[in-house]
Design brief:
Layout lengths: L9 H14 L8 E2 L1 H8 L3 H14 L2 E4 L2 E4 L4 H25 L2 H19 L3 H18 L3 H19 L10 H14 L3 H43 L1
Antiparallel strand pairs: 1-3, 2-3
Helix pairs in contact: 1-3, 2-3, 4-6, 4-7, 4-8, 4-9, 5-6, 5-8, 8-9
Length: 235
Amino acid sequence: MQELKRADPLYEQIYRYLEEGILKGQVTIGERLIDTKVAKDFGVSRSPVREAFRRLEKDGLLINNEGIITVFTPSLKDVIELYQVRIGLEASAAYWATKYITKHELVELHQILEQTQLAIEQKNMEDVILLNTRFHDSIVTYSHNSRLKTMMHNIQTLIRLCRNTIIKQYNRSDSFLLEHYEIYNAMKKKDSELATEKMKQHIHRDMKYFEKFYQNEKTKHTTNFKGDLQNEYRN
């Protein structure tokens, strides 16, 4: 049984537990969730569980199909659509961040790039991923646009789910870092138009690399499957 703190709203705690479980793969994609079972696991009534389910549905992490609740299973189409949304939102963030960014914020952004370079040299992929996310999140923050931040937050959870499932084996080596530096240099020069264009190019290039990676992986698995069938037939 999961231990909950009575000081916090029960549905909020259950929501956080389930969200983290889904994003970490402890609750697998496609898995069915039953409110009575979850309520029993947490030692609560079904009401806070149902409220947590509703919030997770709103985030896109759960799918309600006529009362049957399952964990969202992202497809290639879902990932491409998220990339397309990111292109628009993050290009806008780069434009306004360049307008408003301070000298201190530029130093912070450069430190992230230096830390990323070190993580790459140390082959610490976990830190590389975290720093990559921090770079993009920082630019959104520096835009000082609360509505833009809210819109990005609304898709961040799905982006994390896709990254932790079908994108987790995708690695574009360190080429992304050069593109981050191009964005940073444009911002340092206070060239909003250039920063916008560099951000667009960066995310679009990442989308195309991933699409190619996905298709190659799909072909590889199909080839392996056919090979297994042929070997089984020969035996």
